[in-house]
Amino acid sequence: MTGGYYDREGRPISYEVWRRQRSFNKQVAETRISDGKVVSTVWTGLSASLNGPPKIFETVVFSSDGSVVVEEVKSETEAAARDRHAEVVESWERNALATAARETAFLERVADAAEPEAPPVKRVRVINLED
Fold first, then answer.
1. Is 64 a member of any domain?
2. Which residues contact 15 (CB under 8 A, 6 or more apart)?
3. Is residue 130 one of the residues assigned to a domain?
């Protein structure tokens, strides 16, 4: 197969059909993970593959503010895209929880280090010997 336009089942379609279908039929799954990142899987219907079957589904991980794509994975079928979506969510969620635990431990160490114990106060009694 070569690049081109494909329906959700992977059958070649015209640009006009692709454009109509894309306007209402693209979302496969979307999940927000605990650290705010969003995992989104969509049918693109586009393939630039020069070899092998067309990869017409895309799973993307966006940063928590949505401005940066931090991972992108392409799939050939909707079933594979759904499976890949679940795998990506699980991987990033596990990473988010581990990162949160490391951040918490780090912040606790920083807080402990920022508040050093005050040295003991030495009391000195001054005696005036001239009296």
1. yes
2. 5
3. no
Token output for 69: 């794509």
**Can you tell me whether residue 10 is helix, strand or coil?**
coil
Is 111 buried (19+), middle (13-18) or exposed (0-12) by CB count in 10 A? exposed
Per residue in 26-84, pLDDT (tens digit) is 999 999 999 899 999 999 999 877 788 899 999 999 988 888 888 899 999 999 999 99
Residue 34 lies in a domain: yes
- E-strand spans in the chain? 4-5, 27-32, 38-43, 46-47, 57-62, 69-75
How many structural domains comprise the chain?
Answer: 1
Task: Say what the pTM is.
Answer: 0.72
Pairing of strands 57-62, 27-32: unpaired
DSSP 36: S
**Residue 18 host element (H or E):** helix 15-22
DSSP helix/strand/coil, 117: coil
Determine the structural domain holding residue 63 and report its residue range.
4-114
Question: Is residue 52, in this structure, part of any structural domain at all?
Answer: yes
24 burial via Cβ count (<10 Å: 0-12, 13-18, 19+): exposed
